[in-house]
Design brief:
By secondary structure, the chain is mainly beta. The protein contains one helix and nine strands. The relative contact order is 0.21.
Length: 154
């Protein structure tokens, strides 16, 4: 069994924010790359954002993709880049939510899967396919793709 990391503390000492910061648990910004398996989409005047933190080999990621005016759908399965390479592929690493702006932000949920060491893709909640410009809905301006990943770094 591996020895647990103690952050240099002994029994009875208090773990402070300063000590946590010293072990690398600081949130960092990153801009995910949004791609399609055939042709790449573009957010146009919308935005794409992400942030992550890394504690040893554990990576925690949160991000949003919101298409704006002039956006392009691309084609094929939608994917986003990971901020840190993942250890292996084809494993669930989190979840994603698609919010339909034209329907009072009705939500579609599904697992996020490591597609490669550098990208993740999103499966429809009922397992019937992968997110694309028309699945699970026809993506439109102001719809929101939100995702959260937790995975082991390579």
């Amino acid at each position: 069994m591996a020895t647990q990391y103690t952050a240099g503390l002994s029994s009875g000492q208090i773990l402070t924010a300063a000590t946590m910061n010293s072990i690398g648990a600081v949130w960092e910004s990153y801009t995910p790359t949004w791609t399609g398996s055939t042709t790449n989409p573009s957010v146009g005047a919308g935005f794409i954002e992400g942030r992550y933190c890394r504690i040893q080999t554990l990576v925690i990621v949160s991000g949003n993709v919101i298409p704006g005016a002039g956006w392009l759908t691309g084609s094929g399965t939608y994917r986003v880049s990971l901020p840190v390479n993942a250890l292996s592929t084809n494993a669930p690493i989190g979840y994603a939510t698609l919010l339909d702006a034209s329907a009072a932000y009705v939500s579609y949920f599904g697992p996020a899967i490591r597609q490669s060491a550098t990208t993740a893709e999103f499966r429809i909640g009922n397992g019937s396919g992968l997110w694309s410009p028309t699945v699970p809905i026809t993506l439109a301006q102001s719809d929101q793709m939100r995702f959260t990943f937790i995975y082991e770094a390579a």
